[in-house]
Write a sequence for this structure.
């Protein structure tokens, strides 16, 4: 049994994602209705707990959109809970070594291959251990200078599905500003290096773009999984456009940056 995320990646060169940082019931469905391929739930920087994510995932069971959850570490308990609740993949923040990447993989695998505890919450996922493991994507975030230095070792870890770039934190770690994330040659070179290393290792490469314009640039660099905007960014842009229309003001452009 493949996941929706696996199916989308198998069918399309690029897939486009939305991002959710708060416990909104409407945001994920609106992303799906707009034609987005996946939605990410942010348990690192967002205001979401396990119960929120479980409810959101259950609400999307019959909505045609794939799901991923970003977590702050490779702690196996939270990883197991979101997978039990039906997430297609986990995105693990701040991975800086092959050991951390291996720990993330182990948290998605049952014994003897890993440390995941058996506790399914979604009847629709069934109870087949092999299928539950095979549908669980493991994306590790390369967003620090240390992670960049360990890139080849991380790519070689068995079971890693893909690399996911956090441009803002990568910029900060390299002594630059988040505003430099898509313009400074040192950063664009680093992102290109990550994309090429992932592709060479047979991994999916993703990136947090934050806007449609930057998403187009990311696709041009060859990234296959591109997150465009959070629900708060989409709301802000839409609200500003409506206000500008009402006041007969200038058109809203895709100029705001998203750094999450």
């Amino acid at each position: 049994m493949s996941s929706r995320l696996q199916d989308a990646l198998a069918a399309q060169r690029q897939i486009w994602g939305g991002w959710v940082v708060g416990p909104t019931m409407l945001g994920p469905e609106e992303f799906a209705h707009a034609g987005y391929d996946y939605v990410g739930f942010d348990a690192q920087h967002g205001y979401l707990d396990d119960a929120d994510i479980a409810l959101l995932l259950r609400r999307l069971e019959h909505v045609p959109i794939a799901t991923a959850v970003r977590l702050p570490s490779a702690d196996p308990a939270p990883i197991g809970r979101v997978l039990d609740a039906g997430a297609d993949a986990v995105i693990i923040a701040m991975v800086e070594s092959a050991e951390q990447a291996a720990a993330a993989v182990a948290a998605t695998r049952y014994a003897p291959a890993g440390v995941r505890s058996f506790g399914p919450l979604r009847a629709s996922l069934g109870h087949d251990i092999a299928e539950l493991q095979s549908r669980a994507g493991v994306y590790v975030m390369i967003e620090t200078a240390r992670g960049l230095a360990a890139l080849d070792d991380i790519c070689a870890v068995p079971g890693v599905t893909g690399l996911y770039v956090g441009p803002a934190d990568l910029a900060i770690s390299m002594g630059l500003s988040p505003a430099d994330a898509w313009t400074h040659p040192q950063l664009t070179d680093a992102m290109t290096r990550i994309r090429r290393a992932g592709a060479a290792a047979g991994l999916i490469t993703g990136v947090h773009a934050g806007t449609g314009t930057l998403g187009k640039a990311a696709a041009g660099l060859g990234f296959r999984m591109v997150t465009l905007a959070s629900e708060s960014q989409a709301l802000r842009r839409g609200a500003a456009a409506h206000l500008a229309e009402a006041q007969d003001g200038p058109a809203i452009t895709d100029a705001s940056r998203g750094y999450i």
About this structure: The domain at 4-246 is CATH 3.20.20.60 (TIM Barrel).
